[in-house]
Write a structure and sequence with these properties.
Mean pLDDT: 95
Catalytic activity: 7,8-dihydroneopterin = 6-hydroxymethyl-7,8-dihydropterin + glycolaldehyde
Helix content: 25-40%
Order of helices and strands: EHEHHEE
Shape: elongated
Number of domains: 1
Largest sheet: 4 strands, antiparallel
Strand content: 35-45%
Function: Catalyzes the conversion of 7,8-dihydroneopterin to 6-hydroxymethyl-7,8-dihydropterin.
Enzyme class: lyase
Strand order of the largest sheet: 1-2-3-4
EC number: 4.1.2.25
Number of strands: 4
Distance between the termini: 18 Å
CATH architecture: 2-Layer Sandwich
Radius of gyration: 16 Å
Number of helices: 3
CATH topology: GTP Cyclohydrolase I, domain 2
Family: Belongs to the DHNA family.
Low-confidence stretches: none
Length: about 120
């Protein structure tokens, strides 16, 4: 089966995440990088968005999942986002998802967690 990759690079948002006292009181920035491989089920019609997976829908699901509630661990959040993308988008076959905290440490650009998952895993 043919696939197409949709990706987001450093999608930036503020989320309630963490177990430290200051993380429990305020949001903090997250950066999200995701690559989503989808099945190509029909040719692209340049005049019909219905012939492709609208990446606005993917973005909306990612943002909502990351901002709807406080999550203690980034490992939990990355799993929740992956689960949601597989649940809501049947055409997703494989994804690579990285969520990072750019302000976690002053001596590095970011720290985070990355997973790769396929629908059949």
């Amino acid at each position: 089966m043919l696939t197409r990759r949709i990706y987001f690079s450093q999608l930036a948002l503020d989320a309630r995440i963490g177990i430290l006292e200051h993380e429990l009181r305020a949001t903090q920035p997250l950066h999200i990088d995701v690559e989503v491989d989808i099945d190509i089920s029909q040719p692209v019609n340049d005049h019909n968005i219905q012939t492709v997976l609208d990446y606005r829908l993917l973005r909306s699901a990612i943002v909502e999942e990351c901002t709807q509630a406080h999550v203690n661990l980034i490992e939990t959040l990355v799993e929740q986002v992956a689960d949601r993308l597989f649940r809501e988008f049947a055409e997703v076959r494989h994804l690579k998802l990285r969520i990072s905290k750019p302000n976690a440490f002053s001596d590095c650009a970011a720290v985070g967690v990355e997973i790769q998952r396929s629908r059949n895993d």
